Amino acid sequence: MEALLALEDGLTFRGKSFGAQGETSGEIVFNTSLTGYQEILTDPSYAGQIVVLTYPLIGNYGINLQDEESRRPYAEGLVVREITELPSNWRQQMSLPEYLRKHHIVSISEIDTRALVRHIRDHGAMRAIISTQDLDPDSLLRRVRELPEMVGRDLAKEVTCQKPFHWQDPSLDIFQNPRHSGAVPQPARAEDLPFRVVAFDFGIKHNILRLLVDSGCRVTVVPAHTSAQQVLDMDPDGIFLSNGPGDPEPVTYAIQTVRELMSQKPIFGICLGHQILGLAVGGRTYKLKFGHHGGNHPVRHLKTGKVEITAQNHGFAVDIDSLSKENIEITHINLNDYTLEGFRHRRFPLFCVQYHPEASPGPHDSRYLFDEFRSLMLQHREQRVVASDC
Fold first, then answer.
1. What does the DSSP 8-state code read for residue 85?
2. What pairing do the DSSP bridges indicate for beta strands 106-109 and 12-17?
């Protein structure tokens, strides 16, 4: 079936529908990862966005239930050059078009994605509509210009969990993978996890939770609106602030909560969590022209001088000049545009990065940050023991 993609500045593309029929809208952005389309679609940070994949052939290895990064796809729509209807992979359980139809995701293929990506890069991320119902460009343009912009939108409240829960990895359930053969990984035992962590769900990904467990953490996931006192009543060893979608500035409830917690417990934040920490310590945020979305962004670790290749997915950034040099140490810088990628507090036990150390998809260069969080929690625990002895 024919489909039409319309951008708010008047540019339109005609192509073929390969997902659900109907209409979808959101901010259009591009992702430069070569693989990982399933993880991208199920990353809650893409709520409110239509994703353009720059790699030309998509869907060739299909979909499987183990690679989900959340309970469902959150991207509003998908744009690709060429889609594969017949995937080939021993793990695949359905094709990408089947998966998109199952979850009612409207998508478009057979358009010039190179031209589209160059246009977004030159003119910035903007509002867009994909439709299989209304193929009149003038009609779509009128309606796309009435859509809400990303600035000012609190999307964290739309993707967060509704009540606290203790994390257990759903991918360890053998019944989810009938093709699995051999030994099945077993869930970690509580006695093998010495640290208690409260993780704020602003749109948290499963692989973050897996790596926290791998670092020795028993993780309780809490909704974005959880108060500081509710967190302190759980007496955690550390607090994790997750990734998430939208503009960080409207998430005022979380900013205030973090402000109350940051002198109390070790805190580790990534992506939206990094931006919320930046606002909590008195900084400012701003919208990037077209954002950072992909698995190949170079970041310099200022202390070691090493360059990490990182996975990134954000449309906003913390203004590096807005942070107090007296209280904040800059730790990481983006080598493409020299935006802020990480900082730590000089007095309080907190640090954060703008990128995704858990990747999925993406490189593993930055997984050491989970070990740093563990070390920070251990140090803080030892200091508490010393203080109680005194």
1. S
2. antiparallel
Which amino acid is it at 75? Answer: A
Q: How far is CA 371 from CA 168, 215, 224, 262, in A?
A: 20, 6, 24, 19
Buried residues in 174-211 as b, exposed as e (16+ CB within 10 A) = eeebeeeeeeeeeebeeeebebbbbbbbbbbbbbbbbb
What is the distance of C-alpha 332 from the center of its chain? 18
Q: How far apart are CA 250 and CA 7, in angstroms?
A: 25
367 sits in which H/E element: none
Residue 351: closest CA among 266, 290, 282, 276: 266
pLDDT tens, position by position, for the chain (390 residues)? 999 999 999 999 999 999 999 999 999 999 999 999 999 999 999 999 999 999 999 999 999 999 999 999 999 999 999 999 999 999 999 999 999 999 999 999 999 999 999 999 999 999 999 999 999 999 999 999 999 999 999 999 999 999 999 998 887 653 444 434 344 455 566 667 899 999 999 999 999 999 999 999 999 999 999 999 999 999 999 999 999 999 999 999 999 999 999 999 999 999 999 999 999 999 999 999 999 999 999 999 999 999 999 999 999 999 999 999 999 999 999 999 999 999 999 999 999 999 999 999 999 999 999 999 999 999 998 887 766 666
Cite the active site residues: 271, 356, 358
- Distance, in Å, from the CA atom of 158 to the CA atom of 99, rounded to the nearest integer, reads 22
CA distances from 251 to 72, 238, 246 (A): 23, 21, 9
Query: Could you tell me the CA-to-CA distances from 146 to 49, 132, 149, 153, 172 in Å, in that order?
Result: 16, 19, 9, 15, 44
Contact 300, 333 (CB under 8 A): yes
Q: Do 147 and 37 contact (CB within 8 A), yes or no?
A: no
Asked if residues 343 and 352 have their Cβ atoms less than 8 Å apart, the reply is: yes
